[in-house]
Every structure is written in structure tokens, then in C-alpha cells.
Write a structure and sequence with these properties.
Blueprint: H1 3-14, E1 21-30, E2 42-43, E3 45-58, E4 63-68, E5 77-80, H2 93-106, E6 114-120, H3 129-145, H4 151-166, H5 173-180, E7 185-190, E8 196-200, E9 206-212, H6 220-238, H7 252-258, H8 265-289, H9 293-309, H10 316-327, E10 331-337, E11 344-350, H11 354-369, E12 374-377, E13 385-386
Helix pairs in contact: 2-3, 2-4, 3-4, 3-5, 4-5, 6-8, 8-9, 10-11
The protein binds alpha-D-galactopyranose.
């Protein structure tokens, strides 16, 4: 949809006039560094050029009205700034949670309500459309109210919304990538300090290909919260024998030396993933900077295998998609990306092999799972912003 079409959509639902503004925030894909943002590690995501649009007009009263162009049958959903509480199964929990977080954590209380029209174009699930929603709303609130917050503050408020309003115990990666994304760059982010570096995403002779498993995933947030607890248990055990703040503070050598302090074997496996994933992520960024795609691809494969075998965060469909991708000519590496248990994979594929990759992977994935996958080349865009 063009900006004119988005605005026309807003006007059709809410009527014309007043100060109508438009905002956008992207989804994200993570190249490597999975499930370590909440373990004090480094991650390497980039922003997509698809995301959530919010077309908005501030009201004179305290009403909130929401309309999603993706779910037009739901019509206008009404709420109020005086009723910022979570409702079962409503997408409006995300915008409401962000408004709540501004007040709760920054003492920034929004004075007047909004008419909000949302349109999202992130394909499938698993590419952080919820973070894109949080960041687009945060960007809009800052702009209308003139609140003194940075894009990183907006990312942190989005995470607060997820953790304390929605009940998903996520780390900071998705919201950070959505707020801070830079065209044609990935973000090498230290999640312990929020120091970051933009790394140009130039892969000589190759593209990053995203494949969506189209597996409708359920229970992701409960599996996810379980993994967090397992990591916390492993950390507490390790802290009896070594002075660390987070699992990713350990080198692989230190982990091997102290791992028996972790009593539960499952928690030990989870910690192993975190420690080695941190090591792989730093090595992968170095490899990419040196244009060493063989090493970059190998590390991507190792990350994927660790997610499958040590972190137990994949599923049959994802395993199939990764296996089929790795069989293709010109593939340097392939793995699941994001929260897990479904969603998407990333693969590094030689330019001249992409057409065959698409055709072969789609065919064998369908034959083995009965599902159609969607395969496309990654286009990296800018972070959250006002568009008109
Ligand atoms: C989800 C979370 C992120 C991160 C990833 C796994 O996307 O929202 O914080 O933990 O999973 O790397």
C-alpha cells in the first residue's frame, strides 16, 4: 500500500480532517546469536523493509480506537487511556501495553487518546511483528506528545510491554532491531551494555535468503519462558563456582571446566548453547567483515544444530526446511532464525543458485511436510520513523 492508500484507509474508517500522521517500524531477521540476548550475549539482527504502519490522529478525549486493515472484520475496537489492562486474545494489547509502559516506567502519561489505523505487511509469523507494533506505537507516542525518549528507550519500553503487560519474557533484540535498524546493515549488539555497531551486509556473490515454514506455531511463549528459566537455573548453579553475571560471560573453555556445577543435564545443555552461541556470533561477525563466507556459513550451520539439539527450539517443519536447504548447491549455511519452534530460516546462497534453491526447497519441503513455504531474498531496511 502506498502512503496515499494508507491515509485513504484511515479516512474511510475514521473520517477526514485534523492532523493525520503516519509511522512505520520494521520486523527483523536475526543472522546469528539466538536465545542469548537474555543471557548477556551478542546478537546480529537486521531490520526488514516490511513491518507495521500506523496512521494516527490524536483525539480531544481519552478514548482509544483501533482498526487493523489486516483484520477488517473486527471493526473498530474501543478502549480508553483510563483502562490500560490486558484483554484475552486481542492484538490491541500491544499498543495498549506500550502506552501503559510509558506511564509506568517513565512517568510519561499520555493526555489524549488516539484513532489508530494499523496495516502490517510482514510475511508469515516469526519475524517480530509484535516488536514492530510496539516500536511503531512508541515512535508515534513520542512524536505526538513530544516525550524526551530515544529510539533505544522506545525499544526498552517495547520490551517492558512484552515482559510485564503481555507476559512474554523476551530479551531486547527484536525491539532494538526494529527501532535502530539501518538499511543494508546488520546490528552487532551487545545485549549486556546495549553498545552496538552497524556492519555492512555485503556478501560477495551471495544473498541472504529467508524461508518461511508457514508452520502455524503455538505455545511459543510458554516454551520460550521455560528456556529462560532453564538458563537462570544453570546460571545460579554456575555462580556457586565462578564469578559471572550472565551465561555469556563464560568462554567455551571456562564452560567445559565448570559445567558439572550445573546439576540438571537439560539445563547444562541449554547453558552450552548459550556459551557457544556467543562465541559463534562474535566469530561470525569477524568472518563476515573479512568476507569469509565459508566460515560465516559454517557458524550459521553450527548455530542451527545447537538450536536443534542442545536448545530444543526447532520443530519437524523447520528441521526439514534446514535439511533441504543445506542439500542445495551454492548454500553456505542455513538455520532457524528467531524465537523458534516454527517461523523462518535464513540461508546464505550463491547468487547463481538462488532460482534452483527456491524451486528445489519448495518442492521437497511440500513433499515432506504437506506445507508450502515462502522463499525470498532478504532486503534490509531502516528502523522505526515517521513517514508523513
Ligand atoms: C524472540 C525474542 C528475542 C530473542 C529471540 C531468540 O524473538 O523476542 O528477544 O530472545 O526470540 O533469539
Amino acid at each position: 500500500m502506498t502512503y496515499e492508500e494508507l491515509k485513504a484507509g484511515f479516512v474511510k474508517v475514521y473520517g477526514d480532517g485534523g492532523d493525520i500522521r503516519g509511522y512505520f517500524a520494521p520486523g527483523r531477521v536475526n543472522l546469528i546469536g539466538e536465545h542469548i540476548d537474555y543471557n548477556g550475549g551478542h546478537v546480529f539482527p537486521c531490520a526488514l523493509n516490511t513491518g507495521n504502519y500506523a496512521i494516527v490522529r490524536q483525539r480531544e478525549d481519552r478514548k482509544l480506537r483501533f482498526f487493523s486493515a489486516n483484520y477488517p472484520r473486527l471493526g473498530i475496537l474501543e478502549s480508553s487511556l483510563d483502562d490500560l489492562v490486558k484483554k484475552e486474545n486481542s492484538w490491541t494489547n500491544y499498543p495498549k501495553g506500550v502506552l501503559w509502559a510509558f506511564g509506568k516506567f517513565k512517568g510519561m502519561h499520555v493526555r489524549k487518546g488516539f484513532d489508530i489505523y494499523i496495516y502490517g505487511n510482514i510475511p508469515g509469523s516469526g519475524l517480530s511483528s509484535s516488536a514492530a507494533m510496539e516500536v511503531v506505537i512508541g515512535t508515534m507516542v513520542k512524536d505526538y506528545e513530544g516525550f524526551d525518549v530515544t529510539p533505544i528507550d522506545i525499544a526498552l519500553l517495547g520490551q517492558k510491554c512484552e515482559n510485564d503487560f503481555i507476559g512474554m519474557n523476551c530479551g531486547i533484540m527484536d525491539q532494538f532491531a526494529s527501532a535502530m535498524g539501518k538499511k543494508d546493515h546488520a546490528i552487532f549488539l551487545d545485549c549486556a551494555t546495549l553498545n552496538y555497531q552497524y556492519v555492512p551486509l555485503v556478501l560477495k556473490g551471495c544473498k541472504i535468503v529467508v524461508s518461511n515454514s508457514n508452520k502455524p506455531h503455538s505455545l511459543v511463549s510458554s516454551h520460550y519462558n521455560d528456556r529462560r528459566k532453564e538458563c537462570e537455573t544453570a546460571l545460579a548453579d554456575l555462580q556457586n563456582v565462578v564469578d559471572i553475571k550472565a551465561l555469556c560471560d563464560l568462554t567455551p573453555e571456562q564452560f567445559e571446566e565448570h559445567k558439572d556445577a550445573i546439576k540438571d543435564p537439560i539445563c547444562r545443555q541449554r547453558a552450552k548453547h548459550a556459551v557457544y552461541e556467543e562465541y559463534r556470533t562474535k566469530a561470525a561477525v569477524e568472518a563476515l567483515k573479512a568476507n569469509d563466507l565459508v566460515t560465516f556459513g559454517r557458524l550459521i550451520n553450527e548455530s542451527g544444530d545447537s538450536l536443534r539439539y542442545d536448545y530444543d527450539a526447532t520443530c519437524f517443519e523447520i528441521d526439514t526446511l534446514v535439511e533441504e536447504a543445506r542439500k542445495q548447491e551454492g548454500v553456505f549455511g542455513s538455520r532457524e532464525t528467531g524465537g523458534g519452534w516454527g517461523g523462518n530460516t535464513v540461508s546464505i546462497v550463491r547468487d547463481d543458485c538462488i532460482d534452483a534453491f527456491r524451486a528445489n526447497v519448495a518442492k521437497s519441503y511440500k513433499a515432506k511436510t504437506g506445507l508450502d513455504c515462502s522463499i525470498y531474498e532478504l532486503e534490509v531496511g531502516e528502523g522505526g520513523r515517521r513517514i508523513f
